[in-house]
Design a protein that fits this description.
This protein is an alpha+beta fold and 149 residues long. 24% of the residues lie in helices and 30% in strands. β8 and β9 form a beta hairpin. The protein is globular. The relative contact order is 0.12. About 5% of the residues have low confidence.
């Protein structure tokens, strides 16, 4: 119940502190770059809105694994929700996976599996060439990218 209560408290307009490894710029530098350099990063809280936050499943084992469904405003950090939930439970928290079901105006129903697309397809005025590079080594990929740009 403690998990559900905390997550319910996150619905609505909230002040959220983004993760320190976010792409937010601080004095012109990305926060994640500063963290990697070992510098202290202090990102101020910002207002976001969580429209819906439902618990789908709670699995208990060696770790507590919680699957949630979230509808939120742009700028919301789902990793921060996981971090803050873990902090409220005194155990820490992080994401195992994140699947975006909607990035307005596109939803999963607008998506295609790459293998189902023709080799050349057109999107407005741009031509995209898709190439299977899954069996290439890193040097071959580098050469491919250089010769095909």
């Amino acid at each position: 119940q403690e998990i559900r209560d905390f997550l319910a408290s996150q619905v609505g307009n909230i002040m959220q502190v983004p993760t320190k490894v976010s792409a937010i710029k601080i004095n012109g530098q990305r926060a994640y770059d500063l963290v990697r350099e070992g510098k202290a990063v202090d990102i101020p809280a910002r207002q976001v809105e969580i429209y819906k936050l439902d618990v789908i499943e709670i699995k208990r084992g060696d770790f507590l694994d919680i699957e949630v469904y979230v509808e939120c405003s742009a700028g919301t950090y789902i990793r921060s929700i996981a971090r803050d939930l873990g902090s409220s439970l005194g155990v820490g928290g992080h994401l195992i996976s994140l699947r975006r079901g909607l990035v307005a105006p596109f939803s999963l129903s607008d998506c295609s599996i790459i293998g189902s697309l023709p080799i050349n397809f057109y999107c407005r005025d741009f031509c995209w060439n898709l190439h299977d590079v899954s069996n290439l080594g890193s040097e071959e990929i580098s050469n491919f990218l250089i010769t095909n740009n």
